[in-house]
Amino acid sequence: MRFFISQPMSKGAKVVITDAGICHQLARVLRFAAGDMIIVLDGKGSEGEAVIQSITKDAVTVKIGACGRNANEPEYRVTLYQSVLKKDKMEWVFEKCTEVGVARFVPVLSEHSVKQGVNFIRARKIAQEAAEQSRRGIIPEINEISSFEGAVTEAKESGAVCVLAHNGGEAEHLRDFARAHDLSGGVSVFIGPEGGFSDAEVAHASQNGFHIVSLGKRTLRAETAAIVACFSVVT
User: Fold this and answer.
1) Is 2-69 assigned to CATH 2.40.240.20?
2) In this structure, what DSSP letter does residue 147 have?
């Protein structure tokens, strides 16, 4: 079992974990006991083996053993600018794209957005659990909602390669684009809402140096498009 903790860790150190969720899961759900081992992560890419010294419903004391860098993070940083979707679909994007390897999420309000808000407390919990399950070394950031124009400006100024998925025209497939370009400086991926980006939004992105790409001949649901796009650039 893998858990993100807030305390710094080093080999030989004793750490007292008081996070209520971790304590409940270890003590009450998994029924772990002294002597059992877990993996703890600092959220910055490091992880260590930890042997439980004592355990109650309120605190778990562990001794840190071997530490090292997590080897499961993508080679380069992926930011997903996802137009806000309906609750269940947006949560699906946070979960599955965390598993795929996204480093940062930026919810975006675009012209065709129906849903206007995000439950950030729940979203961050979903991302943390998905990061633990998929053996990642970091928990992806989830930023506040941005306007489309603000997101375009931010992505452009970040220095990352910027791509916007659009199913109109004869655009190059994102998979082929990723293979042909240097993404070592990071990549920002824009995915539209149900109904996609408007023509005006596509034009605005293009005018700001974005690469307009395709995800294939078939029209994908927005949440499917997000997963396909992110998978295309991290593998």
Assistant:
1) yes
2) E
Pull the structure tokens for residue 175: 């998979």
CATH number for 78-234: choose from 1.10.260.40, 3.40.1280.10, 3.30.360.10, 3.30.470.10.
3.40.1280.10
pLDDT in tens, 159-208: 999 999 998 768 899 999 999 999 999 999 999 999 899 999 999 999 99
φ/ψ of 104, rounded to 5, equals -150, 140
Quote the pTM value.
0.91
Beta-ladder partners of 42: none
* 17 phi, psi to nearest 5 deg: -95, 120
Q: How are beta strands 187-191 and 161-165 bridged, if at all?
A: parallel
Residues 115 and 84: beta-carbon distance below 8 Å: yes
Strand partners, 60: 17, 55
Let me know: does 50 contact 38? Beta carbons within 8 Å: yes
Q: Is the dihedral of CA 84, 45, 131, 177 positive or negative?
A: positive
- CA atoms of 92 and 105, how far apart (whole Å): 13
